[in-house]
Amino acid sequence: MTPKTLLARWPSWAGSAALTWSLLYAAGAALAALTGPSLGYAILGKGTGTGAEAAAAVLYGASAVLGYTLLRRPAALWPSRAAWAVVALCLTSGFAALLSPLHLLFFLSRNQDPVDWAALSNQFLAVLGAVLWGCAALAHRRRALGTCAHCGGHRRAAVASDSTRAGLVAVAALVPYTTLKTAWALGLTVGYTGTGRPGADPEYTSDLGIWLYDHGVDVTAALALLGMVLALALTRPWGRRLPRPPMLALGWAGAGALAPFGALLAAVGILAWTGVIGSGLDDHAPWVVAVAYGGFSCYGLALGRATRSFQRATRRACAVC
Prior knowledge:
Elements: H1 3-8, H2 10-35, H3 51-72, H4 78-93, H5 95-98, H6 117-145, H7 163-185, H8 207-214, H9 219-235, H10 244-273, H11 286-293, H12 295-313
């Protein structure tokens, strides 16, 4: 069987793959908890019997039980609903991997912490688990509902109406951040209460990054502009002529990373704004954290909607149903 044929038959093996993945991942966590090596599991600390490793072994062991239930109860809807909680758990474990492309920016910075390759590999493995469990949940739900396990019976026309709106919302969500960071690069200090230059710490910014900043270009603002282009490409006819796999990978990775990241910043910013807690960014006004940085949450959600619309609109005609 060729890889292409195997991939095309994903509904038939997704449940077994998710179960196998959970067993292996839980076994690795148990091994790390008992023998001492973190193997990338020790999020809260390293050493024998750490809480993070033991908790991972228990949680993913329980997910393996759910995976067995998916296989044994094909007509019940509740196992596929519960499976999405495992997807969320996997994304929590692998969240840092979704932001790992930022390591490519190390050439623009200095004095950054070295990459923990064991942890990064483990996080990518967790993201793989999220993909497998998501596929298993979809396949199981579609079988239980009696729809096509491959496409769910969707039609292209049913998803076209919301895509344009999602793209515009995603673009609008990044406008505050892009505007603020560009204003800082141009010499303004709106929303900045500290000393020195906002957004350009010489201890961490490389010579190239400082040179760009001196000429009014903030690297992260430029990345935000690229994020806007991605959202538009996912929701415009011209974007459908671009290669499908990279577009889906960028869209889903960006949505999965930025939606929870922005939600956390928005919550911290709002609580700091109301005086309940400190934001941890004492040289930033609370509204900067809540609005400019918290806008990543809205962008992530809208990008996920845009990516879903793009995925459906560019899907080939189902050869099964």
